[in-house]
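Today's session is about reading a structure prediction critically. Students often jump straight to the picture, but the first step is always the sequence itself: look for stretches that repeat, for charged clusters, for runs of hydrophobic residues. Only then move on to the predicted structure, which in these notes is written as discrete structure tokens rather than atom positions. Here is the chain we will use throughout the hour.
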Amino acid sequence: AMLLVFGLARGDGSWTQTRLLLTGVIVAAGCGAAVTLMLALATDTRVHSMLFWLMGDASAARNPWPALAVLALSLMACMPLARDLNVLSRGELGARALGVPVDTLRRVVFLLASALTAVAVTLIGTVGFVGLIVPHLVRLLIGNDQRLLLPAAALAGGALLVAADTAARLALSPLQLPVGVLTALIGVPVFLFLLARQFR
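Below is the predicted structure for this chain, in token form.
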């Protein structure tokens, strides 16, 4: 899906963020239709587990070492990009003038983010708003230096997920809420607050 989005968004040989976003929305709609079809054709015993995974389910993530290995490798891949990301955050024209390979940097960042998102979704399903809200909150606390922001956002996102999963298990015990539902309930008002704060 990631390669399909990049391939379709490229079009005439170049791509913009708007074209990439619109292509992603279209491909996501197609994938959503495929998932709905699988749900319609699944047996009753599988529908429940599939729905739980679609809403986020951390109960199957029992061995922490693969996730820790992925986290360590991802930080090792991202940290060398921190300096160029700091320069790019001050403006694309200035970054190009200082010799930052902006197009290559964006491709690498998009590919890394897509790959890490795919790993996370494969393990525990779709847990919304963690990757959207946490980096913005951490940026408000420690600033925009990517050398600090990247590892801090990863740790804060993990801490939020653990806290949300714990609350989801205890809120209606012995029933267990999908953790993605809880993070969405937290994330929506926080996102609206950040959005309103930005446009004041």
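Discussion point for the tutorial: Residues 55-198 form a domain with the ABC transporter involved in vitamin B12 uptake, BtuC fold (CATH 1.10.3470.10).
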